[in-house]
Specification:
- Helices cover 10% and strands 44% of the residues.
- It is mostly beta strands and 145 residues long.
- The strands form two sheets. The protein has an eight-stranded antiparallel beta sheet with strand order 4-3-2-1-10-9-8-5, with no helix packed on it.
Length: 145
Amino acid sequence: MKKFALCMLVLALAVAVVPQSQASQCVHFTNFCDTINVNIANVGGNQGKIIYGAWDWVCLGDWTTSSVWGKVEGTAPISTRPVYAGVPFTYTAGFTFKQSGHTFDLYGTTYNAQFAFQLASPWTLSNGACPAGRPNKNLPSLLGR
């Protein structure tokens, strides 16, 4: 029984310390310095497969403040509420990615309005976590930060 308890403790610690850098893929925006670390999980039920991860929207190599999630299939966006200096923005941001042509749209929504940040902008996908460190600062961020 002690061996089992020890194994469970080691497993729990291992799960607790797996960093965001263990993301399965990285979304790169061709014309912007932002990146999104993403994972895919099959959660079953009505959701099926979901995407979850984090958006480094201020281009500081920080994938801890703005979590994202969405569905793999269909047209549902990957959504988040950006956080800056610990304060969530008053709008929600939603990405819609097109596989054909590798373009994306980024919309913002408030309680009574919707607005476009980017339309039909190019993106790429690479395996593994997004590279650590500062991204290309010669490019602007999607939201102008």
